[in-house]
Amino acid sequence: MSMKAFHIYNILILLLLLTFNALALFGAGMSEGGIYPYMWFITGVSFASWVFFYIIQFVRPNKVWRISWFLIMVIILFLWETGLGSKVGLMIFN
């Protein structure tokens, strides 16, 4: 895989993250309770972690390094977005 392919894959993950977070915040905003601070925390940390993993992937020019950190990023973001972020946000803000 080339450097261009890694950029494209990372941008696709960012677009999926933007879409999912926008839908989640829209759904929370349409509810009676509104958007709580822990929901902003979840979305902020998800974008910060994406940037962190994006930088880590391109620190070394080794393809195995990039692929392994890309897979770690996808797994951690999946776990964060599907419930772990909500639990951590509730522990911090409640």
Summarize the structure.
The protein is mainly α. It has one domain (3-93). The chain contains 3 helices and no strands.
Can you describe what's shown?
The chain crosses the membrane at residues 7-29, 35-56, 68-93. The chain has helices at 3-30, 37-57, 63-93. The chain starts with a helix and ends with a helix. It has one domain. The chain has 94 residues and is mainly alpha-helical.
Helix content: over 70%
Rounded to an integer, what's the Rg over CA atoms?
15 Å
**Overall tally of domains:** 1
- Total DSSP E strands: 0
- Terminal CA distance reads 45 Å
Biggest sheet layout: none
User: What class do helices, strands and sheet pairing give?
Assistant: mainly alpha
Please count the helical segments. Answer: 3
Present the secondary structure layout.
Blueprint: H1 3-30, H2 37-57, H3 63-93
Helix pairs in contact: 1-2, 1-3, 2-3
Keywords: Membrane, Transmembrane, Transmembrane helix
Transmembrane segments: 7-29, 35-56, 68-93
